[in-house]
Input
Amino acid sequence: MKITPTKLNVYTVFKLPSAFLCGVRTKYIDDEKSVITVRHRWINQNPFKSMFWAVQGMAAEFSTGALLIGKIQESGQRISMLVTTNNATFSKKATGKITFTCNDGRLIDEAINSTIATGEGQTIWMQSVGVNEEGVVVSTFNFEWSIKVKNKS
Output
């Protein structure tokens, strides 16, 4: 089953309802890139009249995780995935529509092939950059994903 923005948005309704309620939406995904948007609204704001950092984190993490989910499905293997480390920098107040883009799809293939071949866990650092409607970077998130082939039982 090919992953599409519509399928990912339906997925958030049932599996990530807080992300859905906060307005996290998939706009584009292919083998190399994922684009997720979220608009600053009352439900996702902080006391400083900008988007709460955790909402930005949900959108950023989803932009990296969606690519990983798609590649795992394409592999036909049962592979677990988990964020093990993350960090972020914030450079401007997040107001209006924020677009998070991850261009790290190419990094995933090697790690998946390696975990399938060796049976050992692999890690991948992936980055998602959030920009506002003027194209100004508001935040940059880095996620270390751990993947491993699940034991057959």
Observations:
- The helical segments are 5-15, 17-22, 53-75, 105-118.
- The two ends are 24 Å apart (CA to CA).
- Residues 10 and 20 are 9 Å apart (CA to CA).
